[in-house]
Design brief:
alpha/beta, Rossmann fold, seven-stranded mixed beta sheet, 13 strands, globular, Leu-bd, Peripla_BP_I
Length: 321
């Protein structure tokens, strides 16, 4: 996706009149290693901007290492609160993604109590604190929280615990394979079909890995789904197929966010007008206080596809409650 964005930008004179070239760093390496490599590249002038989807532990190490040397567009959904200079967050935050979903699920599914299952690191724990605050304002209850080792292999205990809490719904703050394993384990339990499941982090490949029977009915909120029908999203699907072929891997939120990251870097290199923003595959992206406000959609897994149900947040809207 970054290659596609670079090609399109270069067809339009690049960024600030210079052709865009991409250098890839491994976001799964140790945070200190990543930060050291990128800082060295920025200091020597080898790179002029940074963007990518990676976990918050990497962002928190990279921000002070860069020290504002170059603009850094962080594209992942995250817990919110980043205020460092020259750091711009284009992913979803709990204010725009989770709070409206909780309100929608209360109104349309009658969910008034939740238990939370998350990986044990920065994003889930910080997000859980935000969820507790939003639930208080919305008249919802958190009946329990459970955090499991990130990258763990066994989720049967956590699944049984969630079902036994008696909550109306289980809110998942799990990443990648952890989410897949929990969804499978939970779906195998008798009675699990009576409990609403919701997560802010689930994409098309994770649904495929979970399987249609296990994932069916799961609610997900995000700024992008592969079947989103905005003009920008449809254009992206066409350009992606033309560039990489119809057998290329399915688009998802994470990949699309890397495309948005380069669009954001291009925007930041131009004139600063208020409001600063652009229209992309997600719709309108409006920059304010280092964050791109955006439309967020609520979907439900139907078989192996997402059925988009509603737009639950628009730029400029306050958090509910």
């Amino acid at each position: 996706m970054a290659e596609l964005a670079a090609d399109q930008l270069n067809d339009r004179s690049g960024i600030a009149g210079r052709q865009v070239e991409i250098e890839i760093f491994d976001g799964a390496a140790a945070p200190d290693t990543i930060a050291s490599q990128i800082r060295a590249a920025a200091r020597t002038g080898r790179i002029h901007g940074v963007t990518g989807w990676h976990i918050s532990a990497v962002r928190r190490t990279l921000v002070p290492a860069l020290g504002g040397l170059v603009p850094y567009v962080y594209t992942s959904l995250y817990e919110g609160g980043e205020r460092a200079s020259a750091v711009y967050c284009s992913g979803e935050t709990p204010r725009m993604q989770i709070a409206p979903a909780l309100q929608w699920l209360r109104q349309h599914q009658g969910v008034k109590s939740w238990c939370v299952v998350g990986d044990d690191y920065i994003w889930p724990r910080s997000t859980a604190r935000s969820i507790a605050a939003y639930c208080g304002r919305l008249g919802l209850r958190i009946v329990g929280e459970r955090f499991v080792p990130y990258g763990g292999a066994e989720f049967d205990d956590a699944a049984r615990w969630a079902l036994q809490t008696g909550a109306h719904g289980v809110l998942l703050l799990l990443v990648g394979e952890d989410a897949v394993r929990f969804i499978r384990a939970f779906a195998a339990l008798p009675g699990s079909e009576d409990m609403v499941r919701y997560t802010p982090l689930m994409e098309e490949n994770m649904v495929l890995a979970s399987g249609a029977d296990a994932a069916d009915g799961l609610f997900v909120s995000a700024g992008y789904f592969a079947n989103l029908a905005t003009a920008g999203a449809l254009d992206l699907v066409g350009a992606y197929a033309a560039r990489f072929g119809t057998e290329a891997p399915v688009l998802n939120n994470m990949a699309e966010s890397c495309y948005e990251g380069l669009l954001a870097l291009a925007l930041l290199s131009g004139p600063r007008r208020e409001p600063l923003g652009y229209d992309g595959p997600r719709g309108s992206m409006v920059l304010g206080r280092g964050h791109f406000d955006q439309q967020v959609y609520l979907a439900r897994v139907d078989g192996l596809q997402f059925e988009i149900l509603d737009t639950i947040h628009r730029p400029g809207a306050a958090a509910p409650g």
